[in-house]
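Hi L.,

As promised, DUF5107 domain-containing protein:
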Amino acid sequence: MTTSPTVSALPERADQPAQHHGGTGPRIVLPDAPADLAARLDRGEAVAWDEPLRILTYEAGEPSPYPMYLDQRVYQGSSGKVYPLPFVESVSDVGVERDWQAVHLENRYVRLVVLPELGGRIHVGYDKSTGYDFFYRNNVIKPALVGLAGPWISGGVELNWPQHHRPATYLPVETSIEHGVDGSVTVWCHDHDPFSRMSAHHGVRLHPDRAVVELVVRLHNRTSQRQSFLWWANVAARVHEGYQSFFPEDVRYVADHARRALTAFPSADRPYYGVDYPARADETPGADRIDWYRNIPVPTSYMIVDSQEDFFGGYDHTAGAGFVHWAERRISPGKKQWTWGDAPFGHAWDAQLTDGDGPYVELMAGVYTDNQPDFSWLLPGETKTFSQYWYPIPAMGVAHQATVDAAVHVDRGERTRAVVAVTAPQPRAVLTILRDETAVAAQQADLVPGVPFALDADLDADAAGAGLRVELRDATGRLLVGWQPVAVPDEEPWVAEEPPSPAGLDSAEALYLTGLHLSQYRHPTRSPLPYWHAALDRDPGHAPTHLALGDRLLRAGRYAEALEHADAALRRLTRWNANPLDAEAFYLRGLALARLGRDVEAEQAWGKAGWDATWAAPAGLELARSYARRGRLRAALRVLDDVDAVAGRDARRPALRALVLQRLGQDAAAHAVLEAALAEDPLDTTLRVVAGRPVAADAGRLVDAALDLREAGAGDAAFAVLARAAAPGGGAACAWAPLAHYLAAALHDRLGQHDAAARERATARTQDLRRAFPAGLDALDALDAAVVADPADAVALHLRGMLLYAHGRRTAAAHDWDRAITAGLEDPVLLRNAALAAYNVRHDDDRAWALYEHAVAVAPDDARLRHEQDQLALRLGHTGAERLARLRRVVDLVLTRDDLTIAYLGLLVESGEAAAALRILTERPFHPWEGGEGQALAVWDAAHEALGLPRTDPPASLGEARSPFTPPVARHDDGVTDYFATSLPELLLFARETPED
């Protein structure tokens, strides 16, 4: 073994933990571990406990009672559709001390805090060895209007699923603490996504004697249809001029959202986000390096292109600390940086999100995705499991290679220096620098987390070339991390193009695939339907297109039409082969038949679908459920036996098996099934309900569980759970009680209990309808049944209209709302909804205006209604004087909303009252929203211009600052939204359309 002449252990940086906070505001005080856990912690164990955390909080406003139909809103490059989530439009200007539920994890090296009430995010990641917050610690909860449903907070680690910026950011998750036989502790967080009701578990795990944060994830499609999703772990890191993001050395290019633009990396070789980086570098050498926060002056995203490596991270050169993310590239190719930009515009946004903790960047890790939007699929019942890892690194520099065991930095010049950091104690580890397989320097040392270790060699790295290599091995010779130069072709990757119009595509396959892309990626302004209809014009029997249309129609509740398309697909697929390569058409046929009440035919279709391994598990589950509902209990068990022998985990199957066993009187066997299933999925709602274990009073999850029980034929149990869902206090942001009663009524009718059904419907009509936003086929079927039972049920018509409008059936929705109004329901939400439909769908401007007038008369103090009415007035060509006069009468109400205030101030400027407008602009605080930047600033400039005043920068209270650069275009001069737009300043409630129905 050759020994280097220079070996050093670099110093720890644990002396100034307060310095690493870097902020000027309050600092969260983390409690010590309870006494019984402190002793275990001293022994080197990992511990976890529940203890509230007091944090200065700027509360989000009350959710809107109006459903927001934002299908054409552009959000992160895909649809900003938010229904059935209620929308939050305001944030308090005054912070208050508040206790948040918190779960704490700690071991010898790392301290973490998880906040269950905020989507289970990791809020604190603290390196005890160096005193460094390797995740951005936001010491206040200060939301900005950035999220899909409104409020969003920066800091820590947000888990983005099933689309960008977790829709459940401001929704609670259930938690439990698991102690592993290996000494690990895991905080499990469980939620159902609010759109398709898929289930997600993420477990934040610490091991003893390892400075590694492991995130264990299970994504479960608990629905009967294929669902699209993405997963990005959104890590925030506090930044300044000395912060550098690092990516693998084989990264030569990075791409914008949807790969609409490209630039070289780390030195940008072309304009990107309107910034001419090569020109900036001509003036200031190195200013084109976009791996340094200080060089990016505008809000900017970039995602790496085509790396074959497993790691990336960020490094604070001032603090001498950073972090590494590691996950297997085969499932986790996504590596991204986002920043607001190091300039006044970005700093204004930073101030919206924190009091004194300064700017941050997001270093995001995508699993099953490498861009945004970039959605993957989950089959019905499918569970995807994976892990991601983060660990802090000490003063070693950026990592040039990393594993979950160690990271290495290699300085290359006239001398070569390797610096390593380990994630667990490694006694007698050996660090070696090699040239052409020959060790030129090596040293054995006892390595521990938090202390970097360096080795120098008199070796010219350029001369060594590709023969240079660095290895760190443990005492047994196992490789912990290794590095060698990479050679990557400099061929420029592809850039996305807007698809041609249907007329520009020359085959049914091309038309089908283009439509599939638009559907899968949830494009906000381009529908797949013209492509699919054109495909059938080219080839009337094109089976994939029939399946795509059938699936879409089924999701909209148009079951008979969905069945027609499934049958058309089967005619093509089985013309020569009775057993087609893919049996999806049989599965889809079964779903449509079951919704139409044709159970025996549905069972036949699912039986045939089960011949195909891809569809065996989904079809088997549906078949077993149908057998159970019809009392064929032993047949149901046989199907489950067959599926369990070949299919992966699906928490719905053991729940169904246990229910069937209970009905057969085999309680001990049912108990054993439940215990085994709950050992794997301890927070699954249905499993806990069936097992008789406590379940949180979350009405949405209780309804989900009740539907599972209903599908298994367990009617009495389903009624009991629906009653819990309808009880006060379980609705969170939404009101579930009316729907719970309508679902109970439909089940009573199915069981022939018609008097009980009538009582449930009567009770449903008495419930609070505020934020009762039904969604999904089960809700639709229940509301259909209610309207059949009583065509004058105005509440059912009102609710069904909301659901149909959200499902794209807008003509039918408008008809339902008309009937509800005629039946005498005078509700401002109903009137406003009907007004939207009148303008958007029927193009009846007079009726739209009359309905808004009626709604305002019913709810005169509703500022949201006033804002929407003013937006309609703008579209209907009302004069500025008319609009201003209308708003003057309720000016105090106007000033309660930012958007309405901005419209009012613009009208003041137009009417010659710029001084009054300017006074309000300087006295009133504003909260901008992402995509809506510049609106308050535009009025500020217009007021100054009207008064003959010089253009000045706005006060901080305006919430935004100027950007000298032009962002990528969102809307063209002809009014058409750019195909690659990532955001729009308008929410597009008012948008003329041709409805699908």
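Residues 861-958 form one domain.

Thanks again for sending the construct details.

K.
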